[in-house]
Write a structure and sequence with these properties.
The chain contains eight helices and eight strands, in the order ααββββββαββααααα. The protein is α+β, with helices and mostly antiparallel strands and 189 residues long. Strands 1-8-3-6 form a four-stranded antiparallel β-sheet. A four-stranded antiparallel β-sheet has the order 2-7-4-5. Strand 4 and strand 5 form a beta hairpin.
């Protein structure tokens, strides 16, 4: 829990009373590998902070193919924030890639924190901005680079994840087939 509080304190000042209040609203959630944190077609009901594990954001394209577009690992927030805040139906899935342990907040509790702690909106705004910048930084090389360079970029940004994530998810994230990814990996050894 201390790691979570330290994470929050990177984005703003909170006193002990405020952090105690935040933690009083927190619940622990364990997800088994392949279980969903949030599902397309349902309203997201939690925002979470990942203590252990890896999750992925994915959707199905118009051909029915599963597309992974984002991974989140330990010590990061997990949410479909826009849909969570608006309480509207999600269009993508957030799925556990490994067994996961999270600190979660319901919409009611999240709103209560926001209505109680002055400056909470500024803190969460900075966290969201940080998450978006990380996502853009990680995704940008995937747009214009060849498959080998995309894999090397993935390896650079997610060195600890390469052996924790199924190759099919990595291939989907990189926009290549699993066979192409296997060839690239073999060539780089």
């Amino acid at each position: 829990m201390e790691g979570f509080i330290n994470y929050l304190l990177q984005f703003g000042n909170l006193n002990k009373q405020q952090t105690d209040f935040i933690m009083s609203k927190a619940k622990m959630l364990e997800l088994a590998k392949e279980e969903y944190f949030s599902e397309a077609g349902k309203i997201p009901n939690h925002v979470g902070y990942l203590l252990d594990g890896v999750v992925r954001f994915c959707y199905y394209n118009n051909k029915g193919e599963e597309i992974t577009h984002h991974f989140i690992d330990e010590n990061n927030f997990v949410s479909d924030q826009q849909k969570f805040e608006a309480q509207v139906v999600a269009s993508e899935y957030i799925q556990a890639v490994t067994d996961c342990r999270l600190i979660v907040f319901s919409k009611k509790d999240w709103d209560e924190i926001e209505n109680t702690i002055v400056g909470w909106s500024a803190i969460t705004g900075l966290i969201l901005k940080n998450c978006l910048l990380k996502t853009i930084e990680r995704r940008s090389p995937l747009i214009s680079e060849d498959a080998t360079t995309r894999y090397l970029s993935f390896f650079e940004y997610f060195p600890a994840l390469v052996n924790r994530i199924p190759l099919s998810y990595i291939a989907s994230y990189l926009g290549i087939t699993q066979q192409s990814l296997s060839r690239i990996r073999k060539k780089l050894r």
